[in-house]
Amino acid sequence: MSAKREIRILVACGTAIATATLVATKIEDWFRKMNIPISVARCKTFEVGGKVQVFKPDLIVANTPVSERDAKGIPIVNGFPFITGIGEEEAVNQILKLLGLKKE
After folding, report:
1. What CATH number is given to the structural domain containing 77?
2. Among 10, 47, 75, 100, which one is least packed by beta carbons within 10 Å?
3. Could you report the per-residue pLDDT of 43-82, keeping only the tens digit for each?
């Protein structure tokens, strides 16, 4: 499995410190193991709208609710499995499907 270009993922949470860092690190680890180039940015939930315009992510992983308006059509995946470890592989598979890197 490989991507022709770098995948851009925005990780959003309440403060963009602890849980966003944990989630971003886990996602980066998964993608590196699959040899998929990735760039991950972190932001506070209320910064999502502006960050989407600047970073132009392919996907948002959110640890707190993000409005569809702020996401501007970018798919949103629940980041909680990366915090708990429960359902983490399923969340990665969901991300890969949404990015078109894995078939159903």
Report:
1. 3.40.50.2300
2. 100
3. 999 999 999 999 999 999 999 999 999 999 999 999 999 9
Q: How confident is the model at residue 104 (pLDDT cuts 50, 70, 90)?
A: low
pTM: 0.93
Which one of the listed residues 9, 10, 12, 13 is annotated catalytic?
13
Tokens encoding 7: 């995948």
43 is catalytic: no
The tally of domains found in the chain comes to 1
- Domain with 39, as residue range(s), is 7-98
